[in-house]
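Help!! Second protein's tokens look totally different from the first
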Amino acid sequence: MKFMRFGPSILFLRTSQVVEVKNWIQGIFGAQPIPTDEAIKESREFETVLFVTPMGEEKTIPPDSGFLIPDSARAVLAALINSGLPIEKVQAESSIIFLRVPEKVDDALKLLAGKFNGEAASLEEALDEGEVHDTIIAITKKRLSSPIGPEEVEGTVLVRERFLRVYRELSVDAPLLLLRLMPEWKEITIKMYDTEKQYDENIERLMLVLEDLDLGFVVGEGWDWDYPRPFMRVPVYKLKLLTWEDPVRVKFFLKGLEYRGYSRFCDIDVFVEGKKIDWVKLGKFDSKFELAKAAREELEKHLSEDVKKRLHEIEEKLLKDTEEEKAKAS
């Protein structure tokens, strides 16, 4: 589970030739000006948002629009300097850290403000008030693998401390913070069995989904034996997951990995306190195929495009390998 990630780097370019610099940026980076809220929402970790403003402005207050550049701030700055643009001054916004807290947001803001001697504020207020040596901790309930816009930030803490100190402390203390806010975490066991013994590919599929959907922390994994019938044992891959999600919801998503159409990849069982969640508890479905179809559709709605693409690549390989094995056997 990813509970913390960086926001974009935000740079202010001060110039007496605003229109010309904006035109050059479009030519250099192939970027078009977009509304500021959209630039922040669409930005990924370590990407850069550029604002071009007239000389004379000192406060790093974002204007209505800017440029989202899909590259790091140092690469962007190098390109700007090497291009010889008439930029007279560069200022940086506060560093942003997104922290995912699924509930008790107000308690989290109070804990963070107290720990770092910070000020609770909205994201807009924090961006207006913060400067280059400050750090903004932005709280969201949304999973961090997805885009996060200002409207999805529940609140922030503006910390008047340099980013590295705040990040180092937060990376150590955030799990303890989450444990204080949500003491009743659930531990579930996931077991995977594949008759075709294509475990490497199926384990990758499982981990892709767990990580992309932020379903929990993997606290243990390895091999075990299962006994589907008396005196019959089969190898299974097993992992333990610490999660704040409903185990039935986790089971439903993972059911979407068992099949694609009528092609079966593996069996995945989910246990809570040693008891297996039966598929009939996942809803009113006439068959496992109907359930698997609905689960796959719901799963793909929530996956990021990159992960969905990788998942399909692995599955195409699995289907191809299975067909080749069948051809050899015949």
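Here's the second one for comparison:
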Amino acid sequence: MRLNKAFGFRLFSGGQVAFFPVFNSALPSDRVLEVRADLAEMAEFTDNERYILLEHAALGCLSLICLCDGLALPLVLKPRRILHGVLPCCQVVYCRSHADLVRCAGAVGRFLLRRGKLLCLVDAMGPVPGLSGRYFPKKGLKYFKGPKSPSPGDLTFTEMVVFVS
């Protein structure tokens, strides 16, 4: 940690929240779509978000459109295994905010349950109100360098996505 600080890096995520999205509530009308370039819902996003969704799908991530409360919310998850490769889970790679993640967690939980995944991880500086899970401080610390800190739900185009299988 001192070496990171010596090189001018600053902490933007002090730990991770492990959560069970299926335990969050969802309206019956809430649903999740896997991203495809031809989906009409893609028009709801900025050019940058469409790029993130499509590129991460090509990298093996689950790029999703969450339709909740009349909103289309982008979400990218990286399937992975934890606890010595035993437990399947998904790492949140991109969401606009923790609030959006909480809003769509129940629908995402139903989507993931059908795929045999119950657990998700998201970077955070503390517990995320509204997520059914537990905060683990000092797990998966993330640093950045530059004028603007990435949001804790943004690991786009990092080694997590590009190099880790």
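Reply: Different proteins will give different token patterns, so don't panic. The chain has one domain: 2-162.
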